[in-house]
């Protein structure tokens, strides 16, 4: 149930390794879950439909596995932020600090400055996100790069957000602004959808789209399958149990896509907008994810991203994870124990933000530790 990376990885392993037939259903009209991408009609530029997806991993088995289905480009992710009409590199590094303070601090000088500014508050005594952030990086950097951006992401003033929303705020005392530190990084050469389709392209895998697991009128619904077939469920866990312990909260994103009559809009794939003067959090310009491609040079595609709390009808993107959510999750975990032949997995099935490599890694482990032994027992 679900054709995202978790569901497809388990399906591929079961079909290939155990020689069993697998039916993958998804309520969307395409496979791939949130990693799905397609070429924008007018320009042919690959657009990640559910927000920018950058692949990176230090997990060797995952890297070996994904390379069976796609080659990767040598793309390296870098992000910039526009604060009051000036562009700074992220994550906050020596370049950001020196530009912001109009200075040429050495690493040691910058470290001493930030330590002094952060000493205003004690991290262990922080009562909310704002206090915690100030205690970690000092007030000037917090107010410029964190405060309004966080308020936009959460639609909540950071003084009203719990301190636990951030565990740390990394500051680099070098000019390194490479976003990820993983051993492997890149984008699928032929795009995400080609990669995902290759995973599903197996004689023993059948994919049925536009099929909702909770629609009793379709034959592979919950009542018809649970207890009859082994099920891998990668949808929302609260929905599976009919919200018995209450709803788990999520944040969602709204995307505003536009084709512009210029070859290059912002010169980089992702530009954050730090301030409250701009309603969106960032702009993606997809052509820059693939500089190696021969895209037309007279048009470009941009996507503005807005963040807000999700209602039941929205796509759930990031777990809100309040203490109440965690309490509900524990109740759902208890209920899960009663579902013998159902494996709950993926980001929705575990109420967890998972990067792609984590979803794939979790699926490979679930296959080896739970799914394969289940069938070995039967045979
Ligand atoms: P996923 O959500 O992909 O798949 C679940 C599937 O279940 C969906 O296709 C859904 O339609 C289906 N489903 C749900 N309910 C159903 C029902 N009732 N009936 C039938 N089907 C149902 N990762 C990364 O490594 N680098 C990145 O840059 C990003 N960027 C990023 C941006 C944004 C905005 C988000 C939200 C996420 C990312 N990710 C990411 C994370 C990445 O999207 C994530 O790792 C994968 O989607 C996880 O795959 P899953 O299979 O767990 O879920």
From TrEMBL:
InterPro entries noted in UniProt: UDP-GALP_mutase, UDP-GalPyranose_mutase_C
Regions crossing the membrane: none
Taxon lineage: Bacteria, Bacillati, Actinomycetota, Actinomycetes, Micrococcales
Taxonomic source organism: Naasia aerilata
Coiled coil: none
UniProt-recorded name of the protein: UDP-galactopyranose mutase
Protein family per UniProt: Belongs to the UDP-galactopyranose/dTDP-fucopyranose mutase family.
Source organism, top-level taxon: Bacteria
Cofactor(s) needed for function: FAD
């Amino acid at each position: 149930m679900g054709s995202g990376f978790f569901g497809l990885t388990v399906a591929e392993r079961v079909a290939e390794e155990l020689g069993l037939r697998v039916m993958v259903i998804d309520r969307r009209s395409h496979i791939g879950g949130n990693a799905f991408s397609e070429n924008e009609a007018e320009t042919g530029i690959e657009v990640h439909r559910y927000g920018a997806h950058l692949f990176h991993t230090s997990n060797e088995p995952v890297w070996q596995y994904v390379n069976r289905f796609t080659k990767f480009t040598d793309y390296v992710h870098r992000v910039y932020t526009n604060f009051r009409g000036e562009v700074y590199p992220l994550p906050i590094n020596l370049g950001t600090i020196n530009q912001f303070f109009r200075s040429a601090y050495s690493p040691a000088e910058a470290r001493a400055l930030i330590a002094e500014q952060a000493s205003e508050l004690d991290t262990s005594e922080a009562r909310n996100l704002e206090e915690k952030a100030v205690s970690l990086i000092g007030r000037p950097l917090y107010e410029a790069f964190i405060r309004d951006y966080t308020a936009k992401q959460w639609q909540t003033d950071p003084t009203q957000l719990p301190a636990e929303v951030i565990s740390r705020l990394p500051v680099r005392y070098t000019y390194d602004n490479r976003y990820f530190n993983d051993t492997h990084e890149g984008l699928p050469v032929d795009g995400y959808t080609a990669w995902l389709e290759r995973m599903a392209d197996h004689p023993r895998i059948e994919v049925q789209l536009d099929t909702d697991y909770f629609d009793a009128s379709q034959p592979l619904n919950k009542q018809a399958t649970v207890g009859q077939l082994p099920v891998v469920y990668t949808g929302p866990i609260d929905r599976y149990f009919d919200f018995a312990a209450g709803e788990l909260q999520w944040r969602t994103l709204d995307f505003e896509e536009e084709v512009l009559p210029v070859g290059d809009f912002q010169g980089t794939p992702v530009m954050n907008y730090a301030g409250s003067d701009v309603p969106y959090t960032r702009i993606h310009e997809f052509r820059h994810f693939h500089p190696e491609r021969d895209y037309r040079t007279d048009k470009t595609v941009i996507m503005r991203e807005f963040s807000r709390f999700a209602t039941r009808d929205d796509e759930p993107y990031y777990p809100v994870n309040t203490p109440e959510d965690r309490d509900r999750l524990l109740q759902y975990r208890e209920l899960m124990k009663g579902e013998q032949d159902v494996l709950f997995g993926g980001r929705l099935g575990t109420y967890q933000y998972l990067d792609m490599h984590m979803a794939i890694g979790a699926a490979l482990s679930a296959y080896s530790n739970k799914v394969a032994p289940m069938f070995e027992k039967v045979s």
